[in-house]
Amino acid sequence: MADYVPVIAVADFPEEDKHTCQIKGWHVLVCRDEGQFYAVNDRCTHAASFLSTGRMRRGALMCPLHGARFEIASGKCLGGAYDPLRKFDIRISDGMIEVSVPDEAPGMMDLPMMQIG
Ligand code: FES
């Protein structure tokens, strides 16, 4: 089983409710919605844009490139046009948000477009 990696303290979580980091080469986007934390791959499943630069409203992330919306809690694309986001396990331990990514490095299809090539 993959290890959990400390990402940021709950107390330091940004007011805009998004935080990004890299773990083992994975681009991780941690979001807070109604007090719950979620971690997803920071890559739109349509054409690989970063999602972290998009807006977050009412429990959904909007892709900045073409406007697809993804439900944060489930990762699914609202309207169903694209595949769901890849989610990562997340937990809170001693006030720290911790995320677990796969042991294997991300493949080309897992990376945001600026990381390809
Ligand atoms: S890259 Fe996200 S909607 Fe097209």
Which strand order spans the largest sheet, edge to edge or round the barrel? 1-9-8-4-3-2
Bound molecules: FE2/S2 (inorganic) cluster
CATH homologous superfamily label: Rieske [2Fe-2S] iron-sulphur domain
Q: What's the number of structural domains?
A: 1
- Poorly predicted segments: none
CATH class, named Mainly Beta
First-residue to last-residue Cα separation? 30 Å
What structural class is derived from the secondary structure elements?
mainly beta
**Would you give the CATH topology?**
Rieske Iron-sulfur Protein
The counted number of beta strands is 9
Radius of gyration computed on alpha carbons: 13 Å
CATH architectural group: 3-layer Sandwich
